[in-house]
Amino acid sequence: MSETTVNHPAPGQSSAAGAGAGAGAGGPGADAGGPGLEPGASGRNRPARTANLLYGEAETELRAAVRDLLTDKASWRDVLARTETGQTYDASLWHTLAAEVGCAGLLIPESLGGAGASYREAAVVAEELGRAVAPVPFLGSAVIATTALLAAGDTALLPELASGAVTASLAIPFAAGTRIRPAATVRLEPPQRGDEPGEYRLSGTVSGVADALPADLLIFPVDSVPYGLYAVQVTDPGVGKRPLVSLDMTRQLCDIRLEQVVARRVAAGPAAEQAVAAALLAGAGILASEQFGLAEQCLDTTVAYVKERRQFARPVGGFQAIKHRLADLWVSVTQARAAARYAADWLAAGFGPETTLAVVLAKATCSDTALKAAQEMIQLHGGIGFTWEHPAHLYLKRAKADSIGLGTADAHRASLDVLANLPAPE
Amino acid sequence: MLTGGTGSAPSTEPDSLRSQVAAFLAAHDPGTTERLEFLRARYDAGLAWVHYPAGLGGQGLPRSLQVVVDREFTAAGAPTNYPERNGIGLGMAAPTILAHGTPEQKERWLRPLWTGEEIWCQLFSEPGAGSDLAGLATRAVRDGDNWTANGQKVWTSSAHMARRALLVARTNPDVPKHEGLTYFALDMQQPGVEVRPLRQATGEAEFNEVFLTDAQIQDADRIGDVGQGWTVSMSTLMNERVSIGGNALPREGGMIASAARTWREHPELRTPGLYDRLLRLWADAEVARLAGARLRQQLAAGQPGPEGSAAKLVFARLNQEISEFEVELTGADGLLYDDWTMRRPEGANFFGRNPGFRFLRAKGNSIEGGTSEILRNIIAERVLGLPKEARVDTGPWKDLPR
Prior knowledge:
The structure holds two protein chains of two kinds.
Chain A: H1 57-73, H2 76-82, H3 91-100, H4 119-132, H5 138-151, H6 158-163, E1 168-170, E2 186-189, E3 199-210, E4 217-222, E5 228-233, E6 239-243, E7 253-268, H7 270-308, E8 310-311, E9 314-315, H8 320-349, H9 353-381, H10 392-404, H11 409-414, H12 416-419
Chain B: H1 12-27, H2 35-44, H3 66-75, H4 87-100, H5 103-115, E1 120-123, E2 139-143, E3 146-154, E4 164-170, E5 181-187, E6 193-198, E7 207-218, E8 222-223, H6 229-243, H7 256-265, H8 272-300, H9 308-329, H10 355-362, H11 372-383
Parallel strand pairs in B: 1-4
Antiparallel strand pairs in B: 2-3, 3-7, 4-5, 5-8, 6-7
Helix pairs in contact in B: 1-3, 2-5, 4-5, 4-6, 7-9, 8-9, 9-10, 9-11
């Protein structure tokens, strides 16, 4: 990690992301906004807007479409079986989700071939993908890489992402946090004879990248002067991907090695820095919704199981020791939902301090809740929950990996020193 | 409980309310009008609680519009009904009367309740009936149009100031416990009612014990049918749980406020371990606030969810953890207390006085208004649909072991 602190993505950066579409303007209630912070609690004025924490009708319809598809094509047995094949990402499922359901282009404006929706809709898709631990690169391509390209003002690559024809990945380690910009580990090389104007050469390695295995297009941050974002086609012979044996094989990581590959510059200077910051922040915010969906699925599955499972001639769900644990988990899940919706709604409104705070709260809360839910799922299933032939371990592994990906709960809470004016000890 | 206001509000309603308040203020100068006269006129104008029906202080509007009216009256410096003195009345008695009272009872009780002329209290818990409220033993025996009540109630806020009480009493001991209860409004200012302060761990007596010795109740003051006391009580308790931990607060509006302020003002008290706790508590408090906001949005959109049961559990846990943190943070000062003198405050203030008081008072938050354990049972059984506990108390109440 470099010591450079990433500034908040500039307000308005997300306007290209169709911000405001479905952003719940005029939502009910009057107390879910940033305003209300007492003067002196923070040196900043918060924007006067009320977050809509509910699900809209279009979001509910989108959820139903995604859930139908996943129920049909991504049962946990399918997902489990795929983790032991050479193709851990489900290309066919991703194609249907991206191109036919239209999830690849949710954030992309209609003028570039997308759906012109917002992070609110993307968050609902993420919830469903979390519920199914679905092995598709939605987060990496349709959220993180797409946000980077939108923030960079790209118009050339986005139409192909929107249609689902191209899958992209921002080549940054999944373990990177959102506060400190990760140090780039790829460098610019001198041009070679025959290179056309506008072509650059890159070499270097990036380790532990999520959703890069199925990607056709890789986007690399480079610490050159100026800092830049460069796009690389994976068909270039100098690109090598090495799959990693990952804790979560439903989102398998890989190392990427570049040797003198041809690249095109997507953004340079502050625009590139903002693009990376926006992409990581949006990624963390949408990942929180995935974590919430996963947690809710663990709760639902476990509640259903303890109603059926009998010991001592009664359903084990009738024992108070079990009931109270599940009641507490349900409480945690209701809190996580509110935090996840708050982040999705603020992301849909654009980038700024309140959006950053919303993402920090959501990622910290949902990381803890998803992990707790998966752990409770195993414990309350008893022995069967500890076997390979049961989905609980898939949820546990995804929950643990998600709790590290794009910033741990601890790393996000640390941002409250500035965001909530709670200074660290000297 | 939301009453009226199920429809969505046309955007003209806030403007209409503002002009109604302006017209009212023009006719009743808050500077010169006598306080009670002002409040009674406000009630009669339908500007007391706009979500109540017309004729009962409201206009049948969405509850969310109340804030518009309150803001206008506050800005004009209008006298208030001292809502903090009548929390039980406004928060629990009024919605119960509205839901279960007769037209005559609503007409008779709601106006003086809202104006604060009549403070209400709640006679529910007994020494032998805490979580098991339906097992209560206070008896009410009928003689024509009159009932005579005998028994002991406990944990009664405001009893020493109250004009009336919500009373649940056993009227039929020969049937299972939930079926033999009846709900009354009791006149507290009669010889058969004795109120004694109940001193708490904080040193003050926010609550009372109430002894009923041949206390008299007119049958006209019965709320709901004979034997329906449990159903009516449930609607009171639902409102209680909403009123504990269900309020809309600004960011840093609750127990976290003083902890965060102390942290900011005293760098010398900061340690790494306390810092980690503070960040967790601040984040949890803010997320709990958002969950409360989401719950209110669901209610406003006519999609009530079960999330209300979560609010009080989280509120109690956070109040306890934050106040524990704050006493530890203050170090040497945390060894001191402001005052152990026995006092009788007019209302509950969970966030008042000093850190030691807040620490002690918060211990009650997971007991009052339904213990955290009972709330977990409710969530498990009613929200998650898990099997109920095996019961041994299903026979006639009089045969239950006590």
